[in-house]
């Protein structure tokens, strides 16, 4: 019995070993959400965006960017929380937004059926760093392993679903090469 418990605990810790560290809201100084609504799981859609804010490359500037975005979205846009599920800093760190479990406010009409991942910066001008791309790929693998994403999930650019330049030309060019890329969004596109 004791050996079985040790094996289960060891198995759980090994299962999470491949998941990257996500900087929690508490760690980056985020506010508690005003309200939460829960996502169904697993999801099969990931939307990649950019914040159109200055690029950040240090822990301090990336945490400050996350705080500024959250404050703006709560105070000015009346969102319940930071709208994106996750933010990716130029330092290669992943910042918790609405997370895996909560409905975000990142893409009108798709919030309750997708995960929104936003790169901090303007990727019409900035190139995504290798550290950022590695972090997102690790996050997506973890999402599948932990049952948040289906094994056959698809990735799209924000601009494929609504009228925007997001995720920026340079980032869009990169994500189009990913194996999960969905070129034709006609089957998933909202009819409005």
From TrEMBL:
Signal peptide: 1-17
Gene Ontology molecular function: N-acetylmuramoyl-L-alanine amidase activity; peptidoglycan binding; zinc ion binding
Annotated SUPFAM superfamilies: N-acetylmuramoyl-L-alanine amidase-like
Residue span(s) of domain Peptidoglycan recognition protein family: 20-162
InterPro entries per record: Amidase/PGRP_sf (IPR036505), Amidase_domain (IPR002502), Peptidoglycan_recognition (IPR017331), PGRP (IPR015510), PGRP_domain_met/bac (IPR006619)
GO BP term, pick one: peptidoglycan catabolic process
Residue span, N-acetylmuramoyl-L-alanine amidase domain: 31-168
Organism superkingdom: Eukaryota
Disulfide bond annotation, renumbered to this chain: 19-142, 56-62
Keywords: Disulfide bond, Immunity, Innate immunity, Signal
Family from the record: Belongs to the N-acetylmuramoyl-L-alanine amidase 2 family.
Subunit structure: Monomer.
Protein name: Peptidoglycan-recognition protein
Source organism (scientific name): Leptosia nina
């Amino acid at each position: 019995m004791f050996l079985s418990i040790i094996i289960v605990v060891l198995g759980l810790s090994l299962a999470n070993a491949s998941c990257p560290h996500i900087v929690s809201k508490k760690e980056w100084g985020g506010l508690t959400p005003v309200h939460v609504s829960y996502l169904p799981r697993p999801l099969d859609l990931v939307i990649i965006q950019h914040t159109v804010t200055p690029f950040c490359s240090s822990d301090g500037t990336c945490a400050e960017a996350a705080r500024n975005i959250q404050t703006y979205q709560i105070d000015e846009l009346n969102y319940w929380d930071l709208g994106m599920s996750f933010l990716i800093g130029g330092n290669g760190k992943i910042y918790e937004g609405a997370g895996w479990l909560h409905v975000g406010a990142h893409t009108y009409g798709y919030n309750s059926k997708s995960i929104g991942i936003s790169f901090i910066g303007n990727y019409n001008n900035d190139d995504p760093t290798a550290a950022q791309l590695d972090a997102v790929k690790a996050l997506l693998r973890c999402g599948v392993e932990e049952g948040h994403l289906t094994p056959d999930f698809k990735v799209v650019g924000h601009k494929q679903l609504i009228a925007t330049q997001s995720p920026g030309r340079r980032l869009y060019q990169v994500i189009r090469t990913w194996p999960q890329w969905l070129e034709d969004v006609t089957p998933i596109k909202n009819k409005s």
